[in-house]
Amino acid sequence: MNADLGSPRELTGLQRRRALYQPELPPCLQGTRVRVEFGESTTSIDPKCADIVAQAFPQTFGQKLVHFLEPNSMASDTQAIKEHPPIRVGVLFSGRQSPGGHNVIWGIHDAMKARNPHNVLLGFVGGTEGLFAKKTMEITNDVLSSYKNQGGFDLLGRTVDQIRTKEQVNAAMSTCCDLSLDGLIIIGGVTSNSDAAQLAETFAKHNCKTKVIGVPVTLSGDLKNQFVETTVGFDTVCKVNSQLISNVCLDAVSAGKYYYFVRLMGGKASHVAFECALQSHPNMVILGEEVALSKLTLMEIINKICDGVEARAAQGKYHGVLVIPEGLIESIPEMYALMQEINNLHINNVTEDEIPSQLSPWAAALFKFLPPFIRRELVLHQESDNSAQLSQIDTEQLLAHLVEAEMKRRTKEGNYKGRKFSSVCHFFGSQARGSLPSNFDSNYAYVLGHICVQIVATGLNGYMATVTNLKDSTNKWRCAAVPLTAMMSVRRHLRGPGAVPIGRPVIHPSPIDLKAESYAVLREKASSFLLDDFYRTPGGIQFEGPGANTKPITLTIEDQDYLGDIEILQDYLNKVRTILKPGCSREILKAAISSMASVNDVLKVMSAPLNTELPLYHFN
């Protein structure tokens, strides 16, 4: 582990100014008194999986949704947190670096010290390996001073990002018991929060007093559902990447002779590429979810790109910018099947050198067709979650290579008479994830840190800190704690009436919703993006001035205030109860029964899973 982790930083002028920025808190978290309202018991996001999730998590499934309110927001089933006995809490990073992670820890620290100066916050140095080895540092204001509103995860660092095996879980429980921790806060994405759920279940089963809490921090933005509108770091990463893409766009139009193929880090889903396309307006963007839904083959994608090149050439334009997500390659049916075979060989401990000779005949033929550099990258050892190293697979170079070959073929056959096709490839990955976090990510992370402390103080185990209504100003944000099991499901991989969930319950990466309003906006502009150089230059992240508080376009377009909608529903139900008290007229009672029967029938149909449902995206 790096001995410099947690050491004071030497800050530049900009970093010092950012360190002085005080994140905003919604009214419910201002002060030491918070009211806690327990809502209804939760289920899983997929009704067909509820029984399976309940069986796998008997201790933590079905827990109630919890809201944190202003002290004067009294309601039934509400309790106030008044007394603040001292607590001990541990925190660790688990997952890829994401801008804003340090502010989660800062928020935890400030909330703990405001409640009781004797509270102790311990950071695990080196992520999960530090947790297993009991390697800690006490988080104090002096330690935090040069990490406030700063990028990276170098306050504590990270390692294998996994708490899954029996040995790992037991080591984590041993550490928490030995350190007498009241809470363990795990900062990460879908895999880390799935591990947090399992850890919480095991702790509850063995009567370990430590409450396990997850925090949605991942640059990819794929930890997204009814309760989580976006993740910490997504806004910053998209702003940095959008600036880089817009710079490339201007370079392309200036030279007028190159096509830029840009691959963006973002995991299996295409959220980063989607948001960046809306911010920078490249000529083409190919989303993995579109490819998976349409079942486009590799050569069909190549032909679509070449058709776009020809259409632009007809207007005398021999330049352009194409943006793709790093997970695109897994969305292509034949590539996905090939990668699954390779994955299975890895699981069976077949070495990288032996994998090509162990492939089935059709997979071997496809493997041989691919350029040598892609072959080498496809057989690399897997990530900690047993998935392919998508960041190491140069999909943009594969597309550029095949497009160039196809354009040569079209030229030779006389179908294309324009200039020679030339490409330049880029992968924007680590460039963005160490950036100074935007104001939005700084505020969001700090608020989540405060919520974590309220969760520990309330004695909740197996919950995630969440905020909804994020597109509005901070003083209108809704703070809550949501059971991790409510976000879990089991993927269905079979087609037809016999489709059943298989695998273990986890929190799955969320693909782009191709029925969403934000996607409709992108499709509406696609033709203009392709043929017109309608490039947009958002510039660098603004920390002050008119653009300082901009938020992701996909966040502001969608109506995602799920907790607000639950409040509206509860308000209507309360009004119905008031009207239908015993003594109301028979006509009113009959009208209510008829209406409720209709509502019940509609909701029954809507909540029933489709027998032919398949994942929109090829997730393991």
From TrEMBL:
Gene3D superfamilies linked: 3.40.50.450, Phosphofructokinase domain, Phosphofructokinase, domain 3
GO cellular component: cytoplasm
Record domain Phosphofructokinase: where: 88-455
Key words of the record: Allosteric enzyme, Cytoplasm, Glycolysis, Kinase, Magnesium, Metal-binding, Transferase
Any one of the GO BP annotations: photosynthesis
Pathway entry: Carbohydrate degradation; glycolysis; D-glyceraldehyde 3-phosphate and glycerone phosphate from D-glucose: step 3/4
Activity regulation as described: Allosterically activated by fructose 2,6-bisphosphate.
One Pfam family matching this protein: PFK
Subcellular location: Cytoplasm
GO molecular-function term, one example from the UniProt record: 6-phosphofructokinase activity
Self-association state and partner proteins as the record states: Tetramer of two alpha (regulatory) and two beta (catalytic) chains.
Family named by the database record: Belongs to the phosphofructokinase type A (PFKA) family. PPi-dependent PFK group II subfamily. Clade 'Long' sub-subfamily.
Function, as annotated: Regulatory subunit of pyrophosphate--fructose 6-phosphate 1-phosphotransferase.
The name this protein goes by in its record: Pyrophosphate--fructose 6-phosphate 1-phosphotransferase subunit alpha
Species of provenance: Urochloa decumbens
